[in-house]
Write a structure and sequence with these properties.
The complex is a heterodimer of chains A (85) and B (424). Chain A is built from 2 helices and no strands. By secondary structure, chain A is mostly helical. Chain A has a domain of 26 residues. Chain A is flat and about 45 Å long. Chain A starts with a helix and ends in a 17-residue tail after the last helix. With 424 residues, chain B is an all-beta fold. Chain B has a single domain, classed as Porin. Helices cover 2% and strands 58% of the residues of chain B. Chain B contains 1 helix and 20 strands. Chain B has a 16-stranded antiparallel barrel. In chain B, strands 5-13-12 form a 3-stranded antiparallel sheet, with no helix packed on it. The relative contact order of chain B is 0.14. The chains are: A mainly alpha (85), B mainly beta (424).
Chain lengths: 85, 424
Amino acid sequence: MKSKAEHKNSHAKFICLTSLLSLTLLSSACSIQEVKAWQKGTLAQETMRFGGPNPMIKKFDEHIFTSKEATKGGGGVSGGGCGCN
Amino acid sequence: MHIKNKPLCLLVVGSVATATLSLESVAEDKVAIQVQNYQENGDRVDIQDGKFSFEHDFGPDHTLNVEVDWDSISGASPTWDSKTGASQIVSSASVDSSSGASPCIDEDGEYLCRDTYDLENSAGGEGYKSLNNDEISYKTVTLEDHRDSIAFLYTFRTPVMRNEISVGASYSKEGDFINSGASAEYLMYTNRSKNTGLTIGASFMKNEVLDYIENQWNTYNLYNAQIGVTQVFNASMVAKINAYYMLESGHLSNPYFNVVRRLNVSLDESEPVNLKNYLFKDSRPNLRKAGGISAQLVSEINSHTQWHLSYRYYQDSWAVASNTLESKSLHALSNRFRFSIGLRYYQQDEASFFKAHDSADNIFDEHGYASADHRLGHYDSITGQLSLEFLQTSELTWNIVAGHQKQSSGLEFAWVNLGAQYHY
């Protein structure tokens, strides 16, 4: 088992990674382009969907994570139902 | 001891999210089936799970999604217990909701809360039974369960703006757990280009849990609300940011977990302190407020590669907080094969009333909320996942997925999925 100090270190690393992610998103946000309907061929592909091309695989993943972790939410208003947490 | 714990049970109506997550919904009819085998290390939990889904468009404005799910659980799960398995014995006591203490259970099935002690008996007499440290152990107890569920989702699109209104309902049943839920979500585009979408949704779930010791059903409810913004950045990048709030109220304690409390069993204040350990049931607050934010980003790196990145922050009134970072890339190996690799990091802070079984301080006081459920503990985990999809025809796709997670708590588990998806 990790000590709390080690956990805090890993927490700090995580915050750094999160900050990096935020910067990526912010930099992207600065360059929003107007995309016309006929330019959305790529965005309409199933591989570009949130959750991936096969929703069932994502659901199985969430099923596992939700049951083994004390936290949940953020993926939509639906879901839950196990009471295992 | 034979219990029907639920270490792994299903998201009942995850299908609702599928229809609303995509900014530009893809009209399609399809059926899909997916089966899974899940195993934990140390001969713990083994699960067989299956899902079947059906999605059909009734014209351009209406879509119906139905999902059926079944799973079977067997194996063993760890908790504090007497070495003789005493905690399976029924107690007739009720929960002391004011203090958070729950009935204690001794090896003979006696109710050991102080109010019911037979004060006529001296310590060690017939009035109560103590469990010395060498009579209590943290061990795995066998479990077995089966669950069936069904969920519906109906989506309506408005004629002009193609905004989406989704309503869902779900029902799930196990021998010791019943869940019924309803949800509603509205996706509104801010302009005709549909590059920006606002989502607002809410759901309600009623959960009924059987307390196998008391032989009574307890209830708790879950209320969930979420708002989100989806933004197209360019022709190959889209992102979504959500804020969510959840409220759980009712009987949130888990009847399948025990804790060890140290009680002063002296019958009179004038007598010397006499501390003894007892098994008590897990005891949690009856209210849990939670909230957080989540962000998702999908980008096409090139015509063969897409990248999915997500982050979630969670915090609740039990002092549990978590950070989740997930990355997944999809690679088209050929016109027929698609490969993906995923990596997920999860970090969680423990609940204020949690004590790990292997910590130096693992015994609770007589009063107060208490849990040794390892899922409420302080840990982090790394999850890796590989998947391969075979696009046999333009209609039929096969997939195989392998995943593995390792937690700093020592728990490891792995799973394999097999499935098929048919578009018609």
